[in-house]
Amino acid sequence: MSEQPSVPGANTDIEWLTAEPMLHEPILIVMMTGWIDAAGAAAAAAQVVADDCETTPIARFDDDTFIDYRARRPTMELRDGVNTNLRWNHIELLAGRSPEGRDVLVLMGPEPDMNWRRFSKAVGDIAVELGVTHMIGFGAYPFAAPHTRTPRLSCSSPSVDVLANVPFARSSVDVPAGMAAALEHTMHDRKIPALGIWAQVPHYVSSMTYPASSVALLDGLAEATGVRIAGASLRNEIDIQRERIDQMVADNVDHQLMVTQLESLHDAAVEDDADAADAAAEMRLKSGEEIAAEIQEFLRDQPDA
What we know:
It is a single chain. The chain is of the alpha/beta class. The protein has ten helices and ten strands. Helices cover 40% and strands 21% of the residues. An eight-stranded mixed sheet has the order 1-3-6-7-2-8-10-9, sandwiched between helices. A two-stranded antiparallel sheet has the order 4-5. Strand 6 and strand 7 form a beta hairpin.
């Protein structure tokens, strides 16, 4: 019988997959599926971080403790009647190193379906033991913004000092929280700076992939922590998608008008026009749903889509 790896702590909620990792002041990136992630932009950005940093799983959280199997059923792989395998939804902590040599941890997987405080404590304890210096959470939300502008970023943190160090937009609103928000407080309580970075996604393309917002999150990560991730594959997709959407909009006068209005609102918001945010909210109308449906149909008909 093989010996268990020598790892931090002895929390039975966590299965360590490797011996204690040798990390130096790692940054923790958090992206858990199950809460707002328009266009899957945050998940795509986190996956690029994991790939470009050549991460490998070092720990797995106990499925029976945190996952509701009726909500997240495992996938049965059936081959000619043979039940060959079950693929489970795991929450994993991965470790790697950025191209510039910074140690990085990535927490990925579905949000826990239960025991949120227990999960938060476990992650916080791991962060302390592994010497985490910053936590960054990724998210993305639909907004009345034009696809012709670089996506804006907004932020959240329990610390006014952390917020003072980044130029991202701030909001005042009461909304249901995701696990990343709970982890912000957990890290803050342990004196680890924590910041949530959120990318806006044009509301009329929020149900399809939108690499521009994923890249904005990567750029926000660099701005907040100095960790630079090239994300070449995502950056290469931006111009291709932009051209396709431009072509769709150019064929419809109403769509052109809507985009022009969104551009004006976006530019005013960048100039800190307080009324611009209210005006943008009013743009989330049926026109956005109509253009979304037509753009999706248009992109499906393209041979390279």
